[in-house]
Specification:
Number of helices: 22
Number of strands: 13
Radius of gyration: 21 Å
Largest sheet: 6 strands, parallel
Strand content: 5-15%
Structural class: alpha/beta
Helix content: 40-55%
C-alpha cells in the first residue's frame, strides 16, 4: 500500500516513519511506499535525511524491509493512486502561527493556535487548502482513506467530510494520552482499560475508565495522591476535578483558567520571553538549517529539537498551575502517529478496533446534528470509523460543546460564502472572546496580517 503525507516536510513526520518501521519490524507492516508532499523543498530534504538515518538504523538492527520514501512537490503526483493519505499541513507555516498568537494577544485575548481567536484565524486560512486537497483526493485517489492531523482537527475534518464523506477521519493524541495517564494512576494496563470520552477536538472530557467490568474513575477522583500523580490532575487541581466529576482534556485549561493562562503568557512576554509559536519558529529553523548543512547529523539534530519541543509543551499553562512538570513517558514523543497507524491498520486489515477519533456524529451525541464532527470512541474497521452511542452530556458540557460547534459552523460558512459576516460572528460568539468590539478588532487584525485571508473573505 502507498501512504501519502500532505505536509511531508513537517517536523513530526519522522514519528510517523518510526511507527511504520516498528510495524515492519514486527512483520505487520502494510505500507510499502511512503510519499512525502510539501511545497518547501528544503524541509523535504531535511526530513528526508532524518528518515534515511532511521531507515539505515532499521536495516542494521532488524533486517526487515522498510517502506521506500519518495518526495513530491506536486500534489496531484503525490496523491494519484494513494491508498492512504495523512493530512498534516500547516497553512502559513510557523510564522503564520506567530501572527495568529500575536494578533489575539494584541487584542487582549488568549493567543493559542487552535483554541479561541487564534484557532478561528487558523481555520479560516486552512479550510480553503484542506478543501482543495479533499477534491484532489476525490479525483486522483477516490478509494483512499484520509486521516486528518491538520489543526483545528475537528473543524478541518468536518469541512473535508463535505467532499469525502466518511472516508476522512480526524485524529488527536490528547484523548488517548489522558486515558493512558489516568489508567497508570490507577495501576491499570492502559491497553486493557476502555475510556468513556466525549466532546469535540480539544474540548472533551474523560467521563469513565472501565476495567474489570467496572468504572474505576470514581476511585481516582476520590484519591488526592493518585489525582496529583499525573499532568491533568496537577493542571486542574483535585478539587475542581471532583466538582466536574470527570477529567477534562488538557486544552480545557484555556477555558477553565482563561485569565490565569493569559496572565502567564503576558508575564512571559513582559520578561522578554516568546510566544509558543516564536519558540518553535526559532527551534525548527535552527534544525532545518543545520540538517541541510550536515545531513549526516540530521537525526541527532531532530531528536534534540523534538525533546526540547516536548519539554516546553503548554509551558505557560503549567506555570499558571504552579509549575506542573510533564510526565516522562510523554517526553518520549509519539501519540498522534500511533492513533493514525491504528486507524490505518484497522481499515487495511479489517481488524475491528476501538479508537477515540473525530468523525461525523451520526447520533452518538443527541445534542448535535448528524453531520457535526465529534471526538468520541469509535469502532474502526474496513468500513471506516463508526461512532459508538454516548450518554448525554451534562448541562455544562453541552453548553460549551454547542457554543464551540456553532463557531466551527460560522467558520465553514465564512469560507464557503467568502463573507466576512460569518467570520465576525465566529469571533464574537466564541466563549473566549468577550466583546463584539474585540471581535471586530480581531477580524481586522487578521485580515491585515494575512493577505490570503482578505482574498478568502472578499465579500462583506
Amino acid at each position: 500500500m502507498r501512504l501519502t503525507i500532505l505536509g511531508g516536510g513537517g517536523f513530526r513526520v519522522p514519528l510517523v516513519y518510526r511507527a511504520l518501521l516498528a510495524d515492519a519490524a514486527h512483520g505487520g507492516g502494510v505500507i510499502s511506499e511512503l510519499v512525502l508532499f510539501d511545497t518547501d523543498e528544503r524541509r523535504l530534504r531535511a526530513i528526508g535525511a532524518v528518515l534515511k538515518r532511521q531507515r539505515d538504523a532499521h536495516a542494521a538492527s532488524r533486517g526487515a524491509p522498510a517502506p521506500t520514501v519518495r518526495t513530491e512537490t506536486d500534489e496531484v503526483a503525490a496523491l494519484r493512486g494513494a491508498d492512504m493519505v495523512f493530512s498534516a499541513v500547516r497553512v502559513g507555516g510557523m510564522p503564520g502561527r506567530v501572527r495568529d498568537e500575536r494578533v489575539a494577544l494584541g487584542a487582549g485575548v488568549l493567543g493559542q493556535e487552535t483554541v479561541g481567536a487564534g484557532g478561528i484565524s487558523y481555520g479560516l486560512r486552512t479550510l480553503p487548502v484542506a478543501l482543495r486537497f479533499a477534491r484532489t483526493v476525490a479525483a486522483e485517489a477516490p478509494d483512499a482513506w484520509v486521516v486528518n492531523f491538520t489543526n483545528p482537527a475537528g473543524l478541518v475534518t468536518e469541512a473535508m467530510a463535505e467532499v469525502l464523506g466518511d472516508r476522512v477521519v480526524g485524529i488527536c493524541d490528547s484523548p488517548i494520552g489522558l486515558a493512558r495517564r489516568a489508567a497508570r494512576a490507577l495501576d491499570l494496563d492502559p491497553l486493557g482499560a476502555h475510556a468513556d470520552y466525549v466532546g469535540l477536538n480539544h474540548l472533551g472530557w474523560l467521563r469513565g475508565l472501565w476495567a474489570g467490568g467496572r468504572d474505576r474513575l470514581p476511585e481516582l477522583l476520590a484519591d488526592d495522591a493518585a489525582l496529583t500523580s499525573f499532568e491533568e490532575g496537577r493542571l486542574f487541581g483535585a478539587e475542581w476535578l471532583r466538582a466536574l466529576g470527570c477529567l477534562p482534556n488538557e486544552y480545557l485549561h484555556y477555558y477553565y483558567m482563561a485569565r490565569e493562562a493569559h496572565a502567564a503568557t503576558a508575564r512571559t512576554l513582559a520578561q522578554g520571553g516568546q510566544t509558543r509559536g516564536e519558540q518553535l519558529v526559532e527551534q525548527q529553523e535552527a534544525f532545518y538549517r543545520a540538517a541541510a548543512a550536515t545531513p549526516e547529523d540530521a537525526f541527532a539534530l531532530w531528536e534534540a529539537a523534538r525533546r526540547e519541543r516536548e519539554e516546553t509543551y503548554m509551558a505557560d499553562n503549567r506555570r499558571a498551575a504552579g509549575g506542573v512538570e510533564r510526565d516522562s513517558e510523554d517526553l518520549d514523543g509519539g501519540g498522534y502517529e500511533r492513533v493514525a497507524l491504528a486507524v490505518m491498520r484497522a481499515v487495511a486489515r479489517d481488524e475491528p478496533t476501538r479508537l477515540i477519533v473525530d468523525v461525523r456524529n451520526r447520533g452518538a451525541l443527541s445534542e448535535l446534528d448528524a453531520e457535526a464532527v465529534v471526538e468520541v470512541p469509535c469502532l474502526v474497521d474496513a468500513g471506516g470509523a463508526r461512532p459508538l452511542a454516548a450518554a448525554p452530556l451534562t448541562g455544562h458540557q453541552s453548553a460549551l460543546v454547542q457554543a464551540v460547534k456553532a463557531v466551527d459552523r460560522e467558520v465553514i460558512e465564512a469560507v464557503r460564502s467568502g463573507s466576512r459576516t460569518p467570520a465576525l460572528r465566529a469571533f464574537a460568539t466564541h466563549p473566549l472572546v468577550d466583546s463584539v468590539h474585540i471581535a471586530r478588532t480581531l477580524l481586522d487584525g487578521y485580515m491585515d496580517a494575512f493577505p490570503e485571508l482578505a482574498r478568502v473573505l472578499a465579500r462583506p
